[in-house]
Inverse folding.
């Protein structure tokens, strides 16, 4: 769903029902949750589904109850996927603009809003540092993800 | 246990020590396909039993039922003297004490070798000692800190075995344990795994479709055909004294010739052959039989060679092809009546292609009262 649709819906809800947190951080966070939860769930589910059932069966045959299998096998195997989902959501949140602009508390700025403000008045020199910061912060999780993915590939998780 | 009474009477009264595993009438169907159709099997404590059957013949399903990953539709599974599965109840895998060694090893990729082997142990100093013991047992002492992906296929397999054996299970089941390995490695890993199994005195069930493997490693071979155990006996009996034509043709190579019963002999394209004693009661006089001739029973000699064998006990043919294997050779002979027959010969003196030979059979043959058309499943 486009961010603008979610933002305006939340403005409506905020004005009508959630007046106390309208234009406060919690509502902004709620906006991000609505916007990015599908992204996170998709990535996490894919990685949990990739954890081979066979390994879970083996773990059971070695005496682990189903609940312990989740902690000892499924979660560790899905960890790279969970980390990837986290990184993905973090990145998307940092660069998110419409929901942030509409729902942020009046005094709060994000890198993206600053960048947008300066570029909208063609003050590229002032926008520069924010853009650079955004690129650097985006690069960190991307690099981490790449390294993780590489290690995981090397580990050769069987997919049977 | 209160459900002891539910066990079929013949198990409770079965002679000898309690078997490690007893299957009684185990059946399983998936949709319209009946995979197992009343499997009965007894596995003695400390033995290596091989379940031999064609690919897709329900062997893996049988193992999964034993391990508790599937429940049977009918029949019971008893481990030691505990009933673990019946259509109405099922002990979960974690309480069965059945170690599983899957086909491709399937080590936990997020744990090192020691972590894998120690997975089924309670944490503590004893666990560490046990892990070291197991590493020693499978010949990987000092490899505890390595990651699974750093190991070769054979090493991964031995770790999987050590992992299964570490909690000292009542039973360890191995699913096609060597099929993922290439031929050269296979024999070596097989020997190593078997040594480790014997050294641990574990009761093992190995599932395979490889008959040579089955015959060479088993104390007992259970032939699983059409969802039933067609024969369960020691390897020499299964190979030498098969109980049915299906077993005879599935285990080992054999030529099947049409024949007719004559008292304690059978006549076929190769003349009159001695009938193995275990087949005497399987057919009446003059019954139409399918005669099983193993390649190594066939003897070829020159047509003019002087032998004591009577004219009625040999046949003549022409060598159609020969394949040299070093330790022996396989010679394909076309008999004068058109029947094709393979002979496995020592390589010292081989007839050449096109040569006329006399064909005799040097030992008693099995024969079964069935039409010559083989069951469709085997072709």
């Amino acid at each position: 769903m486009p961010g603008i649709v979610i933002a305006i819906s939340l403005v409506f809800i905020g004005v009508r029902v959630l007046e106390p947190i309208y234009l406060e951080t919690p509502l902004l966070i709620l906006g991000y949750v609505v916007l990015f939860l599908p992204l996170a769930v998709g990535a996490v589910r894919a990685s949990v589904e990739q954890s081979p059932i066979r390994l879970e069966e083996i773990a059971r045959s070695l005496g682990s109850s189903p609940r312990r299998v989740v902690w000892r096998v499924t979660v560790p195997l899905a960890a790279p996927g969970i980390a990837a989902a986290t990184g993905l959501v973090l990145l998307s949140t940092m660069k998110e603009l419409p929901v942030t602009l509409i729902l942020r508390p009046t005094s709060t700025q994000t890198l993206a809003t600053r960048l947008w403000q300066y570029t909208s008045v063609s003050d590229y020199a002032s926008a520069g540092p924010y853009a650079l910061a955004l690129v650097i912060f985006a690069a960190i999780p991307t690099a981490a993800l790449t390294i993780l993915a590489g290690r995981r590939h090397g580990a050769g998780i069987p997919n049977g | 246990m209160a459900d002891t009474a539910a066990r079929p009477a013949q198990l409770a009264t079965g002679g000898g020590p309690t078997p490690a595993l007893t299957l009684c009438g185990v059946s399983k169907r998936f949709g319209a396909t009946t995979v197992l159709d009343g499997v009965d099997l007894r596995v003695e404590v400390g033995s290596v039993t091989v379940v031999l059957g064609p690919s897709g013949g329900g062997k893996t399903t049988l193992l999964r039922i034993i391990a508790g990953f599937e429940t049977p539709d009918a029949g019971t599974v008893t481990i030691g003297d505990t009933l673990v599965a019946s259509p109405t109840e099922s002990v979960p895998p974690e309480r069965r004490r059945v170690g599983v060694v899957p086909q491709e090893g399937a080590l936990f990729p997020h744990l090192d070798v020691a972590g894998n082997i120690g997975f089924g142990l309670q944490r503590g100093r004893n666990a560490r000692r046990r892990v070291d013991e197991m590493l020693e047992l499978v010949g990987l002492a000092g490899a505890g800190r390595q990651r699974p992906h750093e190991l070769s296929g054979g090493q991964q397999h031995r770790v999987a075995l050590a992992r299964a054996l570490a909690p000292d299970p009542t039973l360890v089941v191995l699913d096609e344990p060597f099929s993922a390995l290439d031929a050269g490695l296979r024999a070596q890993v097989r020997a190593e795994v078997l040594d480790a199994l014997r050294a641990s005195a574990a009761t093992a069930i190995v599932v395979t479709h490889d008959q040579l493997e089955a015959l060479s490693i088993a104390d007992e071979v259970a032939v699983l055909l059409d969802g039933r155990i067609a024969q369960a006996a020691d390897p020499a009996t299964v190979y030498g004294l098969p109980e049915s034509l299906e077993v005879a043709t599935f285990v080992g190579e054999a030529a099947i010739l049409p024949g007719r019963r004559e008292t304690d002999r059978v006549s076929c394209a190769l003349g009159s052959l001695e009938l193995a004693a275990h087949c005497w009661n399987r057919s009446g006089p003059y019954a139409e039989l399918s005669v099983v001739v193993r390649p190594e029973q066939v003897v070829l000699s020159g047509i003019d060679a002087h032998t004591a064998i009577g004219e009625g006990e040999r046949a003549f043919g022409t060598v159609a092809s020969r394949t040299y294997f070093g330790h022996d050779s396989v010679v394909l002979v076309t008999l004068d009546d058109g029947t094709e027959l393979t002979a496995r010969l020592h390589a010292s003196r081989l007839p050449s292609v096109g040569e006329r030979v006399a064909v005799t059979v040097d030992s008693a043959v099995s024969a079964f009262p069935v039409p010559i058309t083989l069951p469709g499943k085997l072709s």
Observations:
- The domain at 254-371 of chain B is CATH 2.40.50.140 (OB fold (Dihydrolipoamide Acetyltransferase, E2P)).
- The interface with chain A takes residues 67-69, 92-100, 102, 104, 106, 108-110, 119-120, 147-149, 163-164, 167 of chain B (CB under 8 Å).
- The first strand of chain B starts at residue 21 and ends at 30.
